[in-house]
Input
Amino acid sequence: MSIQVVRKRVSCSAAAVEAALRWLAVRKDGRPLRFLRYAIEDPASEPAAVLGALVRPTESMTTATPEVRALAAWGLILDEISRIGSIRGSAGCDILNAAFRLGGVEWESTLDERFGQLRNLPGAFEISPPSTTTPMHLAWRRAVIVDLAPCLARNLEALVRDGEAWRFYVEIARASFPEPRASGRRAPAGGLQAVFLERQLVAVEMRRKTVYRRLTVRNVVACEDGVDGYVARALTGWAGGLASLPVKGIFGCRVETWPGAQPGDPMVVDLRFPKPLRKGERHEFISLACDDDLDEERCWVNVDVDHHGIATREMDGEGKVTGGLSVSITFDDCVPEACWWYAEQTEYERMVRPPAGDRRLLEIRRGVVEHTFLEPCHPREEYGIAFRWPRP
Output
């Protein structure tokens, strides 16, 4: 990676850095690295306005991609948190780990919920844990104002003038992942369905502004012995999912349903295989979901990767998709004014229309829009196609 230096005056005040850190910590729907990358990719977005003090200094890496620049900013934050832990001890580090979703813990959504989790972590407190999260919020305020923000501000001021020095922090960020980001499959955490998808084809038929039919073809490989089914979960732009809709097993599966875990939860739809799969055994199955509520307006067609991931795109000589994730949408007379694909974005991010000329924009041809994802789809991420309807 070649990095060139740009000498440009960028404000890196401790107050601006503190505001950026606080904004990152209270996000409910994604890891900080994702927002850093989005702030760089879309300079007109809210994340760009709030996180400018953290990401603008990375402009000194003139040849770096947005992902590399985001990694550099994230690596700097990780490095400072590590230094604070070595000076202040584990207590201060635990607070920052919870705030920024570090440490290999399955953190909850809100900052207060994450602080509540600290009470149950072994070794987080020398004495009995507090009964409320107030001490954690006070410790967080002290950590970000006294320790983290001022140190980051000083380093950012220096890095504005030395683009080459960012390389060190890029490597810190890359080393923080369980396995290299360039590899095809990330090591998935627990709670995932024990299959890897070699291919997933999603064909959607729209009626007015609603997903009327959704046909899904899945080619799976069992990741352990005894895999006998697949729990269907497919989001299309509203709270809930297709699990609450009528689902049919078209090929290679039969449908079983049961109530959700909590009152009001949608029905759980289990697509049962003809026989349990052994580890490494392959199976293809097809399901169809229908929504008769044509008054609901949908804003995207989403694929939630709640398993071990989806393979890299593969095509045969005739252009047929033989591997990876492919989504196609057929519209009726009601056609959106724009469509674009998204990958690993929050609901807020995916609804921002890319600028003209952006590679994510998709052309609607004869009422059909489609996209096949080039890269592998990773566990616990979401991928799909979003669209904007004409205003009345």
User: Anything to note?
Assistant: Residues 177 and 224 are 24 Å apart (CA to CA). Residues 134-159 form the longest helix (26 residues).
